[in-house]
Amino acid sequence: MDENRPTIRRQLTRIVLIPSISFLALWAAMAAVETYQAGSLLLSVTQGRDGISAFDRLAEDLRTERRLTQIHLGDSEDTQVRRALKAQRAQTDASADRAHDLASDLGAGLQGDPLPGIRAFAPGSDRLSGLRSTVDGGAADRSVTLTAYSELIEETTEATGALLQPLEQGASLPEAEQARRLATAHEQFSRSDALLAGSIAAGGMDYQETAHFTYLTASYRDILADTSDGLSGRTRDRHAALAASDAWRAAERLSRSVVTRPPVSEGTGDQPAIWNSEIDVSAQEWNQAATAAVPAMGRMVAAQRDRTVETAWNAAVRRLAVGAAGGVLTLAAGVTAIVAATRSSRRLTGRLRRLRDDALSLAGTKLPAITARARAGSSVDVSTELPRLDYGGDELGQVADAFETAQRTAVGAAVKEAEIRRGANRVFLGIAYRNQALVQRQLRVLDEIEAEEEDPRALRRLFTLDHLATRARRYADNLIILGGAGSARRWREPLPLADVLRGAITETEDYERVRLTSAPRARLSGAAVADVVHLLAELIENATQFSPAGSPVHVNCGRVNGGVAVEVEDRGLGLTEQGYAEAARVLSESPEFDVMALPEEPRLGLFVVARLAARHSVAVRLRPSPYGGTSATAVIPDQLLEWAPAAPEAPRAALVEHRAGACDAHGERDGRG
């Protein structure tokens, strides 16, 4: 035995091992990815904690410098404020250097690009120094300066957000969102503090500053009110301590007094009313309240950020532990499953090998011989010819029983098919020929009655019967064509193509709806007249049956490369894409007629068209019509046509007339069919 030949045992072994090993490899890859992600999260937590602390320190220094700058711009003569501002600038520069150095080591949130917001504090940046120079030059506007410092602080917030982003996973996501919102409230409160402190130093607050101050105070109050219910732990405690502190209450009271002061000062005498810029708040009482409330709010924000970092750290540790435990358990389960499956496959291999040998013997030798004898008409005893396969009552035994049943069914079907094929075709054609003979006799009788009838009403009814009999003859021809024989009607001489088209139209039920718009001056070979008339009649009748009653069906005819194209176009619902594909397959393959292969609602006309088209090399194609229905095109080849101009005939013998009230003249009546 060839050792390299595939065996059932090897197949089963591969069936067991490949999925198992693939599963283990997939799990190992997933565990590795999970471990890597958990490790990356731990590293992000470690580095993010240091980076967030540095940028928070820088933001606090910028807030302090912003406040002192606003006071200095409000009262530039205060030497104590100038000294404090100079010292604060040096402290801010030191914090910026530390944050920049740390950000250079971390990269863009651990992604390799410069950290957002740090560019403004790089050694080569002049934004902060330029802002300070403008302030020192005495040309700075308090509102513009406040906005410029606020933009610098927002850039530090961007850097903090970039460091928080890797931590926003799972349970830490809502914590990080709370931290962001509290940081926004902290910044808005600090900005309102700087704005009010500068206005107090300047001796008043104009309309724009009042509106800005009102917006800032309303914003941080809304944020604190929205987030208070979702806080927990130290953040909740510090929030409660802040809300209960005297400094916060004083700051809230003073800020509300600024917002709610009378907006207009009443004029005296001829003086008009003006904006009330006076602030009934002293610098000392505001400083006492704000300098205590701002750091308290900062501690609350820091507590929430610490909670976010702690939550992310705990999640990363849990992911590492779960990944390691899951990997060990999965490895043990996989090894156990492989061992058990391998043992089961060995027991199954022997039985499968025996079933294979028996099946090959029956399928390769006995079954073909029995089937051949049955098709040849020999007598076959199925129970004697096919031995019973006994492999027990489990699934393998059921497979053997199913195989045995399939063999018996195949042999029985072969015998039955041979019997049906021999008798069905004879019966089929016999019925068709008898039916056609009766219709022909009926048409001759109708001709005799029509010739003797003079009553117009009776004659019209006779014409209707004549038309119905003509259609019945075509249906009988359908059966003969499907049975493999040729049509009984024959024409010896070529016939004008226009008469062929009219004859096809009149063999349909709703011929009055059909409009023949064009026909070239050509003659069709007499040997093909009957079949082409039949083919076109089937296409036209299909168009009338599957289009709305009363809608026209257009028949166009024109010369094309290689012959003449006859196009039948209706305005019905058309076919589906699957229907067009199936029609194209039937028309291209000219199938053998087999009632066992027909669908539930067979369209026998399509089979007839395919047979006739294949007999005379007529190309037939169905496609969607621009009017929503179906357009059927039949290309009659040049070898069936004569293009030489014909001499006019008077009277010309035609197939039929297609207008109501005209006398139908059938081909066999003039001796041509």
TrEMBL record:
The keyword Cell membrane does not apply. Keywords: Kinase, Phosphoprotein, Transferase. The keyword Transferase applies. It comes from the Bacteria. Residues 527-640 form the Histidine kinase/HSP90-like ATPase domain. It catalyses: ATP + protein L-histidine = ADP + protein N-phospho-L-histidine. Signal peptide: none annotated. Its EC number is 2.7.13.3. InterPro entries: HATPase_C_sf, HATPase_dom, Nitrate/nitrite_sensing, TCS_sensor_his_kinase. This is histidine kinase. The lineage of its organism: Bacteria, Bacillati, Actinomycetota, Actinomycetes, Streptosporangiales.
